[in-house]
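job 3f2a | input accepted
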Amino acid sequence: MANLTKKEKQRKVKIRIRKKIKGDTEKPRLAVHKSGKHIYAQIIDDTKAETLAFASSLSKEFKSSSNLKNGSSKEAAKFIGKLIAKIAKDKKISSVVFDRGGFLYHGRISELADSARENGLNF
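job 3f2a | predicted structure (123 res):
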């Protein structure tokens, strides 16, 4: 049991966090995932099991309006945070619960969160 891989440890942390964090219609959940090359953010209503808004470094908006090559930088995370906040405002979502998805609140995750806060999301 002590020889868990990095992915297994992260999965356990993610499960522990998700026990405490639930999104509902008043405060949906802002879930963040990062891979080696990209970063993803989505706003989820857990009561309906429905994605309300989505932004990633693979989306058309990211590729067309940013001069960044991929989502593996802090600047890309800032742009995705700004984009998800803009999409949320358009759908009249102002307050969310932040779910870091088992990742440390550091680097790209914190840049995305700070950018989303600066552009109008409350959490």
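job 3f2a | Residues 74-90 form the longest helix (17 residues).
job 3f2a | closed
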